[in-house]
């Protein structure tokens, strides 16, 4: 079977399974396993299982679910709200002070959580209603949250840096050291 036809059949099977309402994760995994079996036979499934196990036991990747867990703890414990209140008290008297505080707390929270999306969503839930209530423009409020939350990729510890270090066979520590100055510089320039 040619690669073009195989690609077309795989995408068709994926779209059919998704249109039937199956969850995305099971659909992707199921289609991949079925086509692996038909192309390489049972040995392909053994190879896939061995690869998955070796990646699951990799100590570098152990940090990823722990960062997600830490982000959930920070959100559910109310630490993010307390940090936001502290930033509001610190910068609230300045013109645009709440936006400055939002960028600062997004930077801190993104560095603590290690994932940009966690910081952006959490601060969007906390900061956006507060900023709109105090008369901030909607575009300025959303922009400050998005800009501050996006720094989570750059400021260590970053899950993206960990995954890059694993794939590129680079030192995680060197990547973390290389991300501190640009991340803090961007945060200062956003303010």
Descriptive notes:
There is one protein chain. The model has no long low-confidence stretch (mean pLDDT 84). Helix 6 runs parallel beside helix 8. The protein has 191 residues and is an all-alpha fold. The chain contains 10 helices and no strands.
Largest sheet: none
Number of domains: 2
Secondary structural class: mainly alpha
Rg over CA atoms: 22 Å
* Poorly predicted sequence stretches spanning 5 or more consecutive residues: none
- Percent range of helical residues: over 70%
Write the layout of secondary structure elements.
Blueprint: H1 3-19, H2 24-40, H3 42-56, H4 63-77, H5 79-91, H6 97-113, H7 116-133, H8 138-149, H9 159-168, H10 172-190
Helix pairs in contact: 1-2, 2-3, 5-6, 6-7, 6-8, 7-8
Question: What's the short story on this structure?
Answer:
The chain is mainly alpha-helical. It contains 10 helices and no strands.
Highlighted features:
191 residues; mainly alpha; 2 domains; 10 helices; elongated
